[in-house]
Design brief:
alpha/beta, about 220 residues, 8-stranded parallel β-barrel, about 15% strand, globular
């Protein structure tokens, strides 16, 4: 396993994208250089061999910067590459199986869309953090429609406590204010980091806003 455990004091969780002009490992390098310390390698189009190579490169980059790398969906890629853990959607492979394969210290992230799903996550008892949403329409999750009210979000967060919760789905710079409103750990950002295919145009602005919040908490 990657020797860098997650630091859930960070309010910014960045995801790589298939839709930009840099490879996934290049995106990871740019994120690390900008100060991001919680990163998810997320590809829906790369074949297994290429995804594995990108993951291995990304793990080495993250080790250098003291960042945490989570792999989306592919448990074997996460395990073999030395990533810190795996993020699983609600209908993806078993979280319990992932926990067994990754072993002690492996990070298990799960996506939650409803109170019922949150109850199942709580019951399984292997989750390290949750991605909750979508808060609004997202270009990376086109099949999902926002359906959680503010009241439902608060109920889910209360149920999951003390599991860290990151909001997902079409989030931008102004959404850092949701942390205090809902009492969540942070926000996940993917498409919001870039401008079209030009990766990272807004990356530094997100990092600076996250750092300001960290200073306020301190």
């Amino acid at each position: 396993m990657n020797l860098n455990p997650p630091d859930f004091n960070h309010s910014l969780y960045c995801l790589t994208s298939d839709e930009v002009d840099l490879s996934h490992s290049q995106q990871v390098q740019s994120m690390c250089r900008s100060g991001v310390r919680l990163i998810q390698l997320r590809s829906k189009v790369l074949p297994f061999d290429l995804l594995f190579e990108e993951a291995k490169k990304s793990v080495e980059i993250c080790k250098t910067f003291g960042a945490t790398l989570i792999v989306n969906d592919f448990i074997e890629v996460a395990s073999r590459s030395g990533a810190s853990g795996i993020h699983l959607g609600y209908q993806d492979a078993s979280a319990a199986h992932a926990a067994d394969l990754l072993g002690k210290g492996g990070v298990i992230g799960e996506t939650v869309h409803s109170l019922e799903e949150a109850k199942e996550v709580r019951k399984r008892g292997v989750c390290s953090y949750v991605g909750l949403g979508p808060v609004r329409e997202s270009s990376t999750k086109r099949t999902l429609q926002p359906r959680l009210t503010g009241k439902e979000i608060k109920e889910i967060i209360h149920l999951l406590n003390p599991i860290p919760v990151y909001l997902i789905g079409g989030l931008g710079l102004s959404d850092f204010n949701l942390l205090e409103s809902y009492g969540v750990t942070g926000i996940c950002v993917c498409s919001g980091l870039s401008k079209g295919k030009q990766f990272g145009v807004h990356l530094q602005a997100f990092v600076e806003q996250s750092d300001k919040l960290k200073l306020v908490k301190a």
